[in-house]
Amino acid sequence: KKLAVIFGGRSAEYEVSLQSAYSVISNIDAEKFDVIMLGITQNGEWYHYTGSAENIADNSWSLDAGNMYEICFSQSTETGGFIEFADGSYTTVKIDMAFPVLHGKNGEDGTVQGLLELAGIPVVGCGTLASALCMDKVRAHQLVQAAGVEIPRSLVFDREASEQELMDGAASLGYPLFVKPLRAGSSFGISKVMSADQLQGAWKNA
After folding, report:
1. Nearest to residue 40, comparing CAs of 6, 86, 3?
2. Would you list the DSSP string of 75-135?
3. What is the Cα gyration radius of the chain?
4. Which SS3 state, helix, strand or coil, does residue 157 take?
């Protein structure tokens, strides 16, 4: 089976993805899967990477120009894979499935899953809807609350919120509390706030 492992991405969690992808590539059963490494730069450029997986781990893969071939996924289910460009021409590469080893925005939020589903390519992991819902903390909470699961009380503010609005909201919830981005992974931009004087810094961090 041809398995495309997709790594990198336009996300604050780019580096985390590289480590996860290296672990997957290093431990996958090579007798069962022919691994094709597909890297996304932090600028959002997609490449078929044919170099060493070690270069993914230390983030030097995108400097290995001799092993990088620009690609884009075909939305034709007849193609069933991606289009690769090299030397002024292109070829199509069929794959059996794709494994998005991506973290955070533009990868774990349903965007890449939707791209692959449109192309008719089976995806390892969550599909488009589950990925999008679970990345959005408010909607995920609303969904499980509707199913009868208790959730912590919370408030949502946008970038334009005034300091007074934040202070009033935090006071209504009570301290200690957590401040976190609405759509990001579990380890980025999160602060535990013990008192009001820590609130503004935590909000800016998120």
Report:
1. 6
2. --TTT-EEEEEETTEEEEEE-SEEEE---STTTSSSHHHHHHHHTT--BSS--HHHHHHHH
3. 20
4. coil
Residues in the chain: 206
The CB density around residue 7, as the number of other CB atoms within 10 Å, is 27
Asked if residues 133 and 140 have their Cβ atoms less than 8 Å apart, the reply is: yes
Give me the mean pLDDT over the 97-109 stretch.
93
Place of tokens 């970038």: 159
Identify the band that residue 120 occupies on the pLDDT scale cut at 50, 70 and 90.
very high
Q: Which residues pair with 7 in a beta bridge?
A: 39
Q: 147-173: per-residue pLDDT in tens?
A: 999 999 999 998 888 999 999 999 999
CA–CA separation, 53 and 7 (whole Å): 11
Measured distance CA(174)–CA(196) in Å, rounded? 10
